[in-house]
Design goal:
- Chain A: It is found in: Membrane.
- The complex is a heterodimer of chains A (426) and B (667).
- With 426 residues, chain A is mostly helical.
- Chain A has 18 helices and 3 strands.
- Chain A has 2 domains: 2-188 and 291-417, no CATH class; 193-271, no CATH class.
- Chain A has a 3-stranded antiparallel β-sheet, covered by helices on one side.
- In chain A, a hairpin with a 2-residue loop joins strand 2 (106-112) and strand 3 (115-117).
- In chain A, helix 6 (119-135) packs parallel to helix 18.
- In chain A, 45% of the residues are buried.
- The radius of gyration of chain B is 33 Å and the shape is elongated.
- Chain B starts with 6 loop residues before the first helix and ends with a helix.
- The chains are: A mainly alpha (426), B alpha+beta (667).
């Protein structure tokens, strides 16, 4: 075990520096854009701890320390304490409902001195950890109902608690873990069904449901006719068709009776069903104006008028991408999304090269969570996804989110650095 | 490894596809669609209009007639208003609580965030006290602008006035004007609006989402500076104008004086007049209402809008046409026995002139002579050709700028009237009228009507021996003293120069020994002609037209004093004072003993309806009773001449107002 001994000699010997570099680059981009978003010509300094970019500087520095600490810990630590961490976050999620501070309609923060802790951010990490630990256990087959429901319970518990805050955005983040389950053997129908449901939901709100039902039936019959030789598949398609029709009829009900007013409005705005740009549609409209006005090369650093003159709301947190799009243009958007994609693909590669299932599953969990954040956050700023307030990883302002993303990522880096070692939860 | 290894590619594929989807969306928004950039600019850029100073207007000696004076508008941004001492504030700007609430509600309705005008045109003294304490009234601010001011309070109808634009003005200007802008409404202010208003500047200011200014957009690269309006030098001589207004005080009428060699209008008096300063400031609305209600209608621009039959002042023109036609020679004589028989009615003459030649005919204003000449002229080609001959005669009259618009640089100019053959066809039937039917035209009566400006212009033509320049009020534009091209071209009236001398000699005699001898100016050879415009509603209008000196004329003038009798008594003396003032800059003692003061102090205003007429209408020196038949078939026209004896005073005022309005619409 020469590898192992080398590993013990230098902590950072096997660290994937490329991922670390991507992480640092994204943090730096985030910090510059927060600086631009809240820039005030009267206080041109870079380090002013009363401002968001000053605080973000502290968050980044503390995150780096956190990252080093994680790299110094033993791999076993994460596996052993996965359940403990999970329980702690569940307790915190319950606590936040009791003692939490309500900000912007969400009871999501626990005040800690001058900072506020957001347990839901950390719940992502601990849930992924516990999920990885559970799925990597011997005799666990996700295709078996018992295993499946256990895994679903691990994911579902924090979701339920976060939904009570209520924080729809953070709740939906956990749905991204479907990729992990899929990778571990979950039937592809789950992915197909979820994709189909999203499409049908949007179509139902846009078009008359009768036409839609007719369309779905015709499409289903066509597919069945094409696949008439494969009885099994034909039957599945038939069932799918029936479920789709039922779903279409239930969507209106869900929309009218289950969704809350502000959620309906956000969906309406997204689908262009309402054009009230003054009130509810204001945010998305101004956000689109900011990004669209960036053109190819952007307006230049600190030159974004939309963000600088506060037309865009929450410009340093959920809508930070506006600053990127406005000041750096399409070029900047391509670079940023490229960096994210590079990071995600790198994470998938890291996950696949793990020898231990735990590390692999955890890696997929990290990639899925980050992917969901990136797509939904940027998607909402450009108006293709309803506004659900989730941060852009490493870039949005905020201590809890940066810390939790750092922990999430660096546990993976740590696991990867030790991939040659034989680790098993038992 | 794991049996589901291949699934990594599905997940990788989903990651890539969704990221690409975002990029495609971004490509569309950032590269293809331009609407976001426009929206971003309109979000952040506020165009602030920089108002230029309106151009001043000077007299011919560069004395200021109108200039700008700073006033202060109070503006309010409702959202910034915090609690303050409303009562004290109202007291300071001179409004009551109710007025405050009304104004404030209006501002809130306009926009709670954007500032709008709260109270207009605070005079400088109120501003001084308010500006010290404006910080006590958060949300309120003061913004300077300029209004017109008239140091000599003179030439109101000539200068005109400015007023706030109406929705229709904005529409017509294709969006050049914006609500609250000022535009020339009448007079020079209207005629030269494009030059006077200058060029507005635009400041592209950046604002944040709360409309707070954040500096210049693109460092002012798209800003334009305001360019002040052009300075206009008018041809008016303020000395003449003021003297004219003084002499015409308490009278209804006009004085128009023109420099024959250029067409420049030296005096433009419309009486009664008003103080142009009434048309600006906070009291403007009340003042306008008062002026509209004034039964003597001071807003009526008489020199170009009032129509008068020229009466005997037409005779020189009549003679010139006959001379040119070869109908008349200076030696032609007619015998005046005190009347001229036209068919079965007689045109009376004031005197028994006996054997009369052209000079005496003009000097003595002999009706018989001119009726005879006119009869011969119209019958030149025989009675059957009356219509053609008449039409030819009308064209020659029109050549003098009579019955057509002269093209003076003022809006609402009237064209006067020379009847057409068709007009007589309609009254008498085709070929049922003859020279005798229309004989009153020979002596300037009948349907003939001219504005005082046209009368003065005819004198210019006579003074110039056959041509005139378009009369105008603005002689130079801007620092480069540009003269409009149309004012530098001669209009030939088609009369050979040689025919003028005998006519001028006659006009000279008028002043030396004739009907205007009382107005002779020692040492100045004035040539003139009195006239009496018949007025079916009251006393006749006194007319006098003249030019002086005889050699190398410097001034041509027409004076009309309504309801004052014959031309020699009121109009001629007033004209003589103006002429002398212009040529000598002083007024000498007259052999006749007349003084300007006497004329200035006389009150000749016609009594208003309900009041007893002061004097019984009296037939003028050279008018004829017979011609009344002709004048009475056009009472509305006489109304326009602003005679105020009509019983239905309100109707009359409505008509006069309608007249102004109609002229407005023509513009």
């Amino acid at each position: 075990m020469s590898n192992s001994s080398t590993n013990q000699r230098g902590f950072f010997f096997n660290v994937d520096w490329l991922t670390v570099l991507l992480y640092l680059t994204l943090c730096a981009i985030g910090w510059f854009n927060i600086h631009s978003a809240v820039f005030d010509p009267k206080h041109p300094g870079f380090v002013d701890f009363d401002t968001n970019y000053g605080k973000q500087f502290i968050f980044i520095m503390s995150s780096i320390i956190l990252a080093i600490v994680i790299l110094l810990l033993d791999n076993r630590f994460f596996i052993t304490f996965a359940s403990i961490f999970y329980i702690i976050t569940v307790i915190l999620l319950i606590a936040v409902l009791v003692v939490g501070r309500n900000v912007g309609g969400n009871q999501a923060w626990i005040p800690l001195g001058s900072f506020r802790l957001q347990p839901s951010e950390f719940a992502k990490v601990t849930t992924v950890l516990l999920l990885a630990r559970y799925l990597s256990g011997t005799n666990i087959r996700i295709t078996e109902p018992r295993s499946f429901f256990s895994a679903a319970a691990i994911i579902g518990l924090p979701m339920l608690l976060i939904m009570l805050q209520p924080d729809t955005g953070s709740t939906l983040v956990f749905c991204s873990l479907i990729f992990v389950l899929y990778r571990e053997g979950l039937s592809p129908y789950f992915l197909i069904i979820i994709g189909l449901m999203i499409v049908l939901f949007v179509l139902t709100l846009l078009y008359n449901q009768i036409y839609l039902v007719i369309g779905v039936v015709i499409l289903g019959l066509l597919i069945m006719w094409t696949l008439r030789r494969f009885r099994q598949v034909m039957f599945t398609v038939f069932i799918g068709m029936l479920i789709s029709v039922a779903f279409i009829f239930s969507v209106k009900y869900i929309y009218l009776h289950v969704l809350k007013q502000h959620q309906k409005e956000r969906i309406d705005i997204l689908l262009g069903l309402t054009t009230d740009l003054r009130k509810k549609g204001y945010n998305v409209n101004q956000s689109k104006i900011a990004i669209g006005s960036g053109k190819l090369w952007g307006k230049g650093y600190l030159q974004g008028t939309q963000t600088k003159y506060s037309f865009v709301p929450e410009q340093s947190t959920d809508f930070i991408f506006c600053t990127v799009g406005e000041e750096w243009g399409f070029a900047g958007s391509v670079v940023l999304i490229g960096l994210y994609l590079f990071l995600l693909l790198r994470l998938l590669m890291l996950a696949e090269r793990q020898r231990s299932p735990f590390s692999r599953i955890y890696g997929y969990g990290v990639a899925s969570v980050l992917f969901f954040h990136v797509i939904i956050n940027i998607g909402m700023t450009v108006g293709v996804v309803p506004v659900i307030g989730i941060p852009l990883p490493f870039i949005s302002y905020g201590g809890s989110s940066l810390w939790s993303f750092t922990i999430l990522l660096f546990i993976m880096i740590k696991l990867d650095s030790n991939r040659m070692g034989t680790i098993s939860p038992n | 490894m794991n049996s589901f290894f291949a699934r990594r590619y599905v997940i990788t594929g989903i990651f890539i596809i969704l990221c690409l989807t975002l990029l495609v969306r971004l490509f569309y928004m950032q590269i293809i669609d331009d609407k976001y950039l426009l929206a971003s600019n309109s979000n952040v850029i506020r165009k602030v209009i920089m108002y230029p100073a309106r151009g001043p207007i000077l007299d011919r000696n560069n004395k200021i007639l109108v200039q700008n004076e700073p006033v202060y508008d109070i503006i309010v941004t409702p959202r910034k208003v915090k609690e303050f001492d409303t009562l004290e504030f109202c007291k300071m700007i001179g409004i009551d609580k109710e007025g405050f609430d009304k104004r404030f509600a209006k501002a809130v309705k306009y926009s709670p965030y954007r500032s709008s005008i709260f109270e207009k045109q605070l005079p400088a003294r109120l501003w001084a006290s308010l500006s010290e304490r404006i910080y006590e009234f958060p949300g309120f601010d003061v913004q300077p602008r300029t209004i017109r001011t008239y140091p000599d309070s003179t030439a109101a109808q000539f200068l005109g006035y400015v007023g706030e634009v109406t929705d229709r003005d904005i529409e017509k200007s294709n969006g050049y004007y914006r609500p609250g802008d000022y535009i020339g409404r009448t007079g020079v202010e209207k005629a030269y609006e494009d030059l006077l208003r200058g060029q507005r500047g635009v400041l592209n200011q950046m604002v944040d989402s709360r409309n707070v200014p954040k500096g210049k957009f693109a460092n002012g690269a798209y800003d334009t500076v305001a360019v002040a309006g052009e300075r206009l030098q008018s041809s008016l001589d303020i000395r003449l104008q003021k003297l004219g207004e003084k002499l015409m005080k308490n009278k209804v009428g006009s004085i128009v004086a023109i420099e024959p060699s250029t067409g420049e209008i030296l005096a433009f008096v419309s009486s009664p007049t008003y103080d142009p300063n009434l048309m600006v400031g906070r009291e403007r609305g009340n003042n306008v209402a008062k002026l509209y209600d004034d039964p003597y209608n001071p807003l009526f621009i008489r020199p170009i809008q009032a129509y008068y039959p020229p009466g005997s002042s037409f005779k020189p023109l009549s003679a010139l046409i006959a001379l040119q036609q070869g109908i008349l020679t200076p030696q032609t004589t007619y015998f005046c026995a005190g009347g001229y028989w036209a068919g079965n009615h007689m045109v009376k003459c004031t005197h028994h002139h006996g054997t009369t030649d052209l000079t005496l005919g003009i000097a003595g204003s002999c009706n018989v002579y001119f009726c005879s000449v006119f009869d011969k002229l119209i019958n030149e080609h025989g009675g059957k050709q009356t219509e053609a001959t008449f039409t030819d005669w009308k064209a020659r009259v029109n050549q003098f700028g009579f019955g057509v618009k002269l093209g003076v640089d003022l809006p609402h100019e009237g064209r006067g009237n020379v009847p057409t053959a068709l007009h007589y066809d309609n009254i008498h039937g085709k070929n049922h009228w003859r020279a005798s039917t229309i004989i009153s035209l020979a002596i300037g009566q009948g349907e003939l009507e001219a504005t005082p400006l046209q009368l003065a212009n005819i004198e210019c033509t006579i003074a110039n021996h056959g041509y005139y320049y378009t009369p105008h009020l603005i002689r130079a534009i801007g620092d480069k003293n540009i003269v409009k091209k149309e004012f530098t071209s001669k209009h030939d009236v088609g009369i050979d120069p040689q025919y003028f001398e005998p006519v001028i000699e006659g006009m000279h005699q008028v002043v030396q020994v004739g009907t205007a001898r009382g107005s002779m100016i020692p040492g100045i050879d004035m040539c003139g002609k009195t006239g009496t415009a018949q007025n079916p509603h009251g006393k006749n209008h006194s007319l006098f037209v003249a030019f002086a000196p005889r050699i190398n004329p410097k001034i041509a003038i027409a004076v009309v004093v309504e309801n004052s009798g014959d031309g020699g008594t009121w109009a001629a003396p007033i004209a003589s004072f103006i002429v002398e003032k212009y040529l000598r800059d002083s007024i000498t003692t007259r052999p006749s003993g007349i003084t300007p003061e006497y004329y200035a102090n006389a009150n000749l205003l016609p009594p208003l309806p309900g009041q007893k007429p002061a004097v019984k209408p009296k037939v003028g020196a050279d008018s004829t009773k017979q011609q009344k038949g002709d004048t009475t078939n056009k009472p509305a026209v006489q109304v326009k001449a602003a005679s105020r004896k009509n019983k239905k005073d309100t109707l009359l005022r409505t008509l006069a107002a309608a007249q102004i309005k109609r002229k407005d619409d023509e513009q």
